[in-house]
Amino acid sequence: MAIFLEILSWTTMFLLFLIFILFLGYCLYVNHIHMKYDHIPGPPRDSFLFGHAATYVRATRNGEIIYDKFLEWAENHGPVCRQNFLHYVVLLVTCPEGTKEVLMSPKYPKDRFFYSQIFNLFGQRFLGEGLVTALDHEQWYKQRRIMDPAFSSLYLRGLTGTFNERAEKLMTTLSDVADNQTEASMLHLVNSLTLDVIAKVAFGVDLEQLKDRSRFPKAVQTCLKGMLLTVRDSFYKFNPKNRAFIKEVREACHLLRTTGAQWIQDRKTAMENGDDVPNDILTQIIKTAGKEESMTEEDEELMLDNFVTFFIAGHETTANQLAFCIMELARLPDILEKVRKEVDDVIGMKQDITCDDLGKLTYLSQVLKETLRIYPTAPGTSREIQEDIVIDGIHIPGGVTCFFSSYVTGRMDKFFKDPLTFDPDRFHEDAPRPYYCYFPFALGPRSCLGKNFAQMEAKVVMAKLLQRFDFTLLPGQTFDLEDCGTLRPKSAVVCSVRHRNCDK
């Protein structure tokens, strides 16, 4: 027995010594990374080993906007700003030339440090390897080729009728609010609208006819919050107190993916049987995918990844943009009057808005662009720099991640004078164009496929709202932002709504 205890003791000591050696070796490696990149300016690290991770965790737990910290760092440390996380280095780049060089080129892949983390959420497949998260260029390009016809300008023009139809349902709801003189959370109303639009336009499903419709908005919000916590707090999943929410996230992911699988299978079955099917985005995707030389099980899984991507991104970001736009117009009467006059001149009393009408609403376009300058609902994107590069005169060794944030550059005085002033004339056709410092839909080959879809929808909704209603923000609201994976108004833009000219 004594011999056994002695052997156990020596084994334990050896294991502890081995762990110590491995830890020491890792610390030396982290120090090597520091020496390799510390010539690049950046804020002091919170700790030697974890770098700036504590700043991220604090911001997430306190409900702060981490991009405001990025803005502070960019202004204090320059156009290339270093951040450390263990042995990883992330560079915040606000140099327009560097932004152009990296984002406009296909040779810089998306950053696996971030995008691989949202492949799944707590073990449940989430965005997988869809259009947003695909790291391999060839795999991404194949998907993009399949998706492109469903977002062509010709096809999008045919969606105007659906945009009008769904927006009319919102107008009916607002009419009831005005008649009953009750308050309305504009964020919640437009979120419900854009969810209906993406379900109908993309997948041919009328959510109002589903018994469990109310489950989808909650599932989306739960997934987005889970995504935020996964990315910002690496230790979140190890805390036993978080098990209940982790279970909610997994169930929400499962709901979205099983729903998508059912909708896709129903559509494919209908098409195989020769049934009449809607000429929507899902049909276009299936038709185009069928032209590929071969479709594997993984390709089928990728279609499901893209279902989840479109289902979430196709309504969440547009809803937030609309809510921010309403918030700004409600507190800026001069701009509101100007954009309303344009709507009256172009639309008049018409109920159906055409594509030609949308093209004439130039000032409304400026208002929506200015909204995204100050409030980019998807605030940033990142790329891997695998080879040495020089940005703004700073030599950057390969093996690093560069992060680009339209939120940060859009709020910098060096690019936009008085950046927190809401001024749609910045985007007048005669105004100087922003040079690679305004990219709410990213830039280059990996830019957002659905940006034209989103802006058509936003213009139809805003034009109808301005045409028919006056809206006033209720007192006591903040104009703070909330980071839920996307940026949204924290106070949900609660308004009193009245019919226009109702007192005249």
From TrEMBL:
Gene Ontology molecular-function annotations: cholesterol 24-hydroxylase activity; heme binding; iron ion binding
Biological process per Gene Ontology, one example term: cholesterol catabolic process
UniProt enzyme class: oxidoreductase
Annotated pathway: Steroid metabolism; cholesterol degradation; Lipid metabolism; C21-steroid hormone metabolism
Catalytic activity: desmosterol + reduced [NADPH--hemoprotein reductase] + O2 = (24Z),26-hydroxydesmosterol + oxidized [NADPH--hemoprotein reductase] + H2O + H(+); testosterone + reduced [NADPH--hemoprotein reductase] + O2 = 6beta,17beta-dihydroxyandrost-4-en-3-one + oxidized [NADPH--hemoprotein reductase] + H2O + H(+); (24S)-hydroxycholesterol + reduced [NADPH--hemoprotein reductase] + O2 = (24S,25R)-24,26-dihydroxycholesterol + oxidized [NADPH--hemoprotein reductase] + H2O + H(+); 7-dehydrocholesterol + reduced [NADPH--hemoprotein reductase] + O2 = cholesta-5,7-dien-3beta,24S-diol + oxidized [NADPH--hemoprotein reductase] + H2O + H(+)
Intracellular or extracellular location(s): Cell projection, Dendrite; Endoplasmic reticulum membrane; Microsome membrane; Postsynapse
Keywords for the protein's UniProt record, in alphabetical order: Cell projection, Cholesterol metabolism, Endoplasmic reticulum, Heme, Iron, Lipid metabolism, Membrane, Metal-binding, Microsome, Monooxygenase, Oxidoreductase, Steroid metabolism, Sterol metabolism, Synapse, Transmembrane, Transmembrane helix
GO cellular component: dendrite; endoplasmic reticulum membrane; postsynapse; presynapse
Record EC number: 1.14.14.25
Chain sites annotated for binding heme: C448
Main location: other
Names of required cofactors: heme
Membrane topology: Single-pass membrane protein
Membrane-traversing stretches: 7-26
Pfam families xref list: p450
InterPro entries: CYP46A1, Cyt_P450, Cyt_P450_E_grp-I, Cyt_P450_sf
Family: Belongs to the cytochrome P450 family.
Function text: P450 monooxygenase that plays a major role in cholesterol homeostasis in the brain. By promoting constant cholesterol elimination in neurons, may activate the mevalonate pathway and coordinate the synthesis of new cholesterol and nonsterol isoprenoids involved in synaptic activity and learning.
Name of the molecule in the record: Cholesterol 24-hydroxylase
